[in-house]
From TrEMBL:
GO terms of molecular function: metalloendopeptidase activity; zinc ion binding
InterPro entries noted in UniProt: FTP_domain, Peptidase_M36, Peptidase_M4/M1_CTD_sf, Zinc_Metalloprotease_M4
Ranges where the FTP domain occurs: 63-107
Keyword Signal in record: yes
Record keywords: Hydrolase, Metal-binding, Metalloprotease, Protease, Signal, Zinc
Secretion signal, residue range per the UniProt entry: 1-26
Domain of life (superkingdom): Bacteria
GO BP of this protein: proteolysis
Keyword presence, Metal-binding: yes
Pfam families: FTP, Peptidase_M36
Name under which the protein is recorded: Peptidase M36
Cellular component, GO annotation: extracellular space
Length: 503
């Protein structure tokens, strides 16, 4: 996201990430082995209680509310929400990762010790808070009902401030604003646009005309006009999972467009890129196939849902995912974004992370991880569809043809050799190249399928405020669960090359 404001809280300095020693994993407090097929939540509760002093938790875990338990073939993940006086502390969670025997092997914690509430000090109600938030963001018309949630916001000094989290979609700009309003004085504590955006446009073919042709010569946007070169790169594909209504609606995708409804009684959708229907076909095919690919890796619980995609939904030169509406919107500035499979996959990556860890990307490092994962997904999807050397370690070749003179032109690259902390810039897209190269290097060493499986598995371990260090540790933990730690050394070295510790 452009211009993401820095969010500094106690988490930045106090987040605790612990990889448990192997000898500690197989024992309870009394030293007895943990039995197979135990209740994973009970196991996680017991471990947190036994080690409450280490993390600053209350001994009875009375301010940690159980959120979810996710069981997979390779391990389980128990998530907790920190609370004060029964209300959530926004974006402060704890996750416990357990192996198949129910042994805790990784703790990721955003917990802030010794928080106290402020009963009796709230002066604003929900309507007051909504008015403050809408006024601050100059929202005149909302797209849907506004969400108002009371809880506690942790300031930089570690104090818990009673606040309302107001989430609203601006009907005019489609921006989704999350605003924290102090319940005592109406002060705006934090404000950000939640829409995950990409700087550029362009949707492609299979994956895009430059990659399948192996050259950029002769390929110009020319205001959406057809050309012999572009039409020659169109590939015939199977659109799977259509619901038979004649619309581009299926199990995993619902492609919509405000002015141009795409319909075929015979379910035949053959268009060239000058047609406004062309982008609908592109988003349906690529998102549907991406979800099916994820399921071939063994995941049936990663964004396994129908996602609404608003094609050509904005004239701006960007696209975004909205965590509020759970929808994707693609822009028409420059090359239409929905013509480039790398851009489609990038935006779908934001949807994936929000599905696995709602609210993910609450810090600058987390935002960079989100952009980096999106770039990784876009790059490996392009590589799988067109396994040639042209465009490797590059995303959005067709999208970038109007603004990058490189050969190939790229929105961003995954081989820039950026390293923490020297190359940290403070902008999520630029800093995302640090994270994306680590993931792309993992794919080069282990193979795309194995690396992608580790990366997706690792997301379950994260919290909304996780950063680079937590992400690298989670990938290493995922390898322990899936492969018995066979790739531990490679993972450590890959992230060390980026200046990030996985230990």
């Amino acid at each position: 996201m452009k211009n993401r404001k820095t969010f500094v809280t106690a988490v930045a300095t106090a987040m605790m990430l612990t990889m448990l020693a192997p000898q500690a994993l197989a024992e309870t407090a009394q030293g007895a082995p943990v039995a197979a097929k135990v209740d994973t939540k009970v196991s996680a509760d017991n471990y947190l209680k036994q080690n409450a002093g280490q993390y600053g938790f209350k001994s009875d875990l009375s301010d940690l509310k159980h959120v979810s338990t996710i069981n997979t073939e390779f391990g389980s993940y128990v998530r907790y929400q920190q609370q004060v006086d029964g209300a959530d502390v926004f974006y402060h969670q704890v996750t416990v990762t357990l192996d198949t025997q129910g042994n805790p092997i990784l703790i990721v914690s955003d917990y802030v010790p010794n928080l106290t509430g402020a009963k009796g000090k709230t002066k604003l109600n929900e309507n007051d808070a909504e008015g403050k938030a809408l006024g601050h963001n100059k929202i005149k018309n909302t797209k849907e009902l506004v969400s108002r949630v009371f809880g506690y916001y942790v300031e930089g000094n570690g104090a818990a401030v009673p606040a309302y989290k107001v989430t609203a979609v601006d009907a005019d700009t489609l921006s989704t604003w999350e605003t924290f309003v102090g319940a005592e004085d109406g002060k705006i504590l934090k404000n950000k646009d939640l829409n995950q955006k990409v700087d550029g446009t362009g949707k492609v073919f299979l994956p895009n005309p430059l990659e399948t042709a192996g050259t950029k010569t002769g390929f110009l946007d020319n205001n959406d006009a057809d050309s012999t070169a572009l039409t020659g790169q169109l590939k015939t594909v199977t659109l799977r999972g259509l619901d038979g209504s004649g619309n581009l609606t299926g199990q995993y995708v619902k492609a919509v467009q405000k002015k141009y409804a795409t319909y075929s009684a015979t379910n035949t959708f053959n268009y060239t890129r000058s047609s406004n229907h062309f982008e609908n076909v592109m988003v349906y095919y690529h998102i549907d196939e991406l979800q099916r690919y994820i399921q071939t890796l063994g995941f049936t619980n990663v964004n396994n849902r129908q996602i609404t995609v608003n094609v050509n939904g904005t004239t701006a030169d960007n696209s975004f995912y909205s965590p509020s509406t759970k929808q994707l919107t693609f822009g028409t500035g420059g090359v239409d974004d929905a013509e480039d499979a790398g851009i489609i996959a990038h935006e779908y990556g934001h949807s994936i992370q929000d599905n696995q860890v709602p609210g993910f990307g609450n810090t600058l490092e987390g935002g960079a991880m989100g952009e980096g994962f999106g770039d990784y997904l876009g790059a490996i999807w392009e590589d799988k569809l067109a396994p040639t050397s042209f465009g490797n370690a590059c995303i959005g070749e067709w999208d970038a043809v109007s603004y990058d003179s490189g050969n190939p032109p790229c929105l961003r690259r995954l081989d820039t050799n950026k390293v923490m902390p020297g190359d940290w810039y403070g902008e999520v897209h630029a800093d995302g190249e640090i994270w994306s190269q680590g993931e792309y290097d993992l794919a080069l060493q282990l193979g795309v399928d194995k690396a992608t499986k580790l990366i997706l598995q690792s997301h379950f371990s994260l919290t909304p405020s996780s950063g680079f260090n937590a992400g690298a540790k989670a990938i290493k933990t995922a390898d322990q669960l899936l492969n018995g730690g066979a790739n531990a050394t490679a993972i450590t070295n890959i992230w060390a090359a980026r200046g990030i510790s996985a230990n």
